[in-house]
Amino acid sequence: MKPHRRQPLYLAFLLHRLSGLGLALFLPFHFYVLSLALDSEAELDGFLHWSQAPLVKLAESGLVFLLAIHLFGGLRLLALENMPWRDAYKNAAALAVAAAFFVACGFLLRAF
Amino acid sequence: MGFMDDSSSSTAPPIAVRVWRGNPDGGSFEAFEVPQQPSQTILDVVTWIQRHADASLSYRFACRVGMCGSCAMMVNGIPRWTCRTHVNKVMRDNSLTIEPLRNLPVIKDLACDMTEFFDKWKQAEGHFQGSATRHEKVAALSPNSPQRRVANAATECINCAICYASCDVVNWNRDYLGPAALNRAWSLQNDERDSGGAARLAAVGGDAGCHQCHSQQGCATYCPNELNPTASIAGLKRMVMKAYVKGGLG
Amino acid sequence: MLELRLYIAQRVSATIIAPLVLIHLGMMIYAIQGGLDAAEILARTRGSWWWAANYGLFVIAVAVHAAIGLRNVLREWLCLRGAVLGAVTWLSFALLLVTGLRAVFAVVMP
Prior knowledge:
The structure holds 3 protein chains of 3 kinds. Chain B has 10 helices and 7 strands. The longest helix of chain B is centred in the C-terminal third of the chain and has 17 residues. By secondary structure, chain B is α+β, with helices and mostly antiparallel strands. Chain B folds into 2 domains: 98 residues, Ubiquitin-like (UB roll), CATH 3.10.20.30; 131 residues, Alpha-helical ferredoxin (Fumarate Reductase Iron-sulfur Protein, Chain B, domain 2, Orthogonal Bundle). The model of chain B has no long low-confidence stretch (mean pLDDT 94). By secondary structure, chain C is mostly helical. Chain C contains 4 helices and no strands.
């Protein structure tokens, strides 16, 4: 990574952008799976059965992390842009990562 | 021991310095070996090269004491005032890489063309517009009023373009007005004597304006005067939104 | 003023999405225990006006939000411009909206 980018808030930006990209690319697939219910419940069930595999559950936890980090990072940005400036927004970025990790772990623990 | 004493009393090995040489058509790095000196700055290194190794090296400086911002360059990939950057603070494995400021066209070697930087300053209406005449009393401003504090916090910009060089949005969007111009616009918007607010708001709320900022805060990280253009731009975003909602944006 | 309008649409859709995402995250963490079962999921959603409204709004807001976000990435990282950029943005909005509403319909229709 270029030297001038090795600072926390660029990483926060990158995480926000990459998580958004990941979610946007995942969504059509997610919508397709759900719409399997249109044809038959059995088809949806078949897919869900496949998704019991541990690797899939791990991937799902990753997606939960992406959603949570994009949400908490986004809330930080909405605060930063609409409320009076606080230098503590830097800490908020770290807090967002921690909270997202916590949420994803919660999902992972219940998945197994 | 003089500033440019060749006979260094230290036994430190010479510094391996890579300097970007070139012109608008392109260029490459050239290697120099520069003797180490106590309290040596990057500007000292560049000056030594020009005086003792290659007189054709082009670079800019003026005050040498961190007041004018003319000597800004990329040092090991980070934009810095070279007169205020000590070699022993940034040198890695006895080597340095020195390049012209990022995001600006090169004229020659380490001197870049600041035209677009100042053009954007003008596009952002970064100049004070007074409405009083010599016949009015001098404006009575309290330095402690909340608005004056906000204006003062952003006012120390000396146009060195380090924030411009560190901004990735500038890199990705050549039209973007950039942190310095927007920071000045914010300072003026908070100056109660200024009367150019409406035009300025329309300028910074345009397609190349404050809404392009992603709050990466590279500008705030590297500004040697410890300004925070990201905070200023966030303030502009709020001002533009208010004006837009009220229907008062040009 | 296009960029300003897109910025506003992005932030307004984000504000709408935020509580919906919290609901969705909560739902996922609740539902994942014991494995996902089609019958179990659909028993919750089939014929439910509440789920239809919740996820319907979610899909519309996300289609706006994601399309504008994608546009920023395409503009800044892939240097797309003008008509091409506009076309890809509208295409991604349409794709997300249509497939999303179809999915909502699939799970809430009685």
